[in-house]
Design goal:
Distance between the termini: 28 Å
Helix content: 40-55%
Low-confidence stretches: 209-218
Order of helices and strands: HEHEHHEEHEEHEHHHEHH
Radius of gyration: 20 Å
Largest sheet: 6 strands, mixed
Number of helices: 11
Structural class: alpha/beta
Amino acid sequence: MKRIYKKLRQARPDAIIGTDQVCPSEKKKINRIAPSFFVPAEHISWKEQLKMVARFLEREDRAEQWIERYEFKVQSAREQIGSALGDDKILVVRIHGQNIHMYWNRGLEDVLYQDLKLEAVYRGNEPSNIEQLTKLDPDRILLVVCPEALSRAYWLALQHSVEWRQLKAVRSRKTYHILSDPWFEYSAVSIIRMLDEALLLFTGNCPNAFLENVHGEL
């Protein structure tokens, strides 16, 4: 941490933003470097997180514009994806090591279920196996394969198995590979990226230009 404090002091920031997962003693040290704000990481939505940061930076109008434009984009994406998917049900599957997990998180809940109104055959996190996937037999699968060697090797073997190849989503070529970034993240930036990727994955349509200064100021 000493190295981090040194770099922060050398950067001479006007403000510092972090999460409330930083311990109280560390918060005090960071506050001595520059005015700081620690965003609650749990129990509030990304919209509330964005508004809190905007309030701290006195950029509340920019946050409201971001949210309004996001909601406008959701309406368009919902229509396009709804038309492409119909009544299809989805399942998010994560492969880690030699294990299959049914996966769900806050970002998936917000984007896929709440905003896009997609139907999921299962919304939760728990270990699974190919037999359970066969029983659920989703119409479409979002698949995350962890990048380390054991997971990749298991995935290579799994996709050649009879049980995997007989899944409805696999037979109809409606299995989509996604990455932990942005699908395992939770922030205003990751949410809009998930929306864009969902539109591209399910429809093939490239998202319209949106929020040109995504990485700039609010």
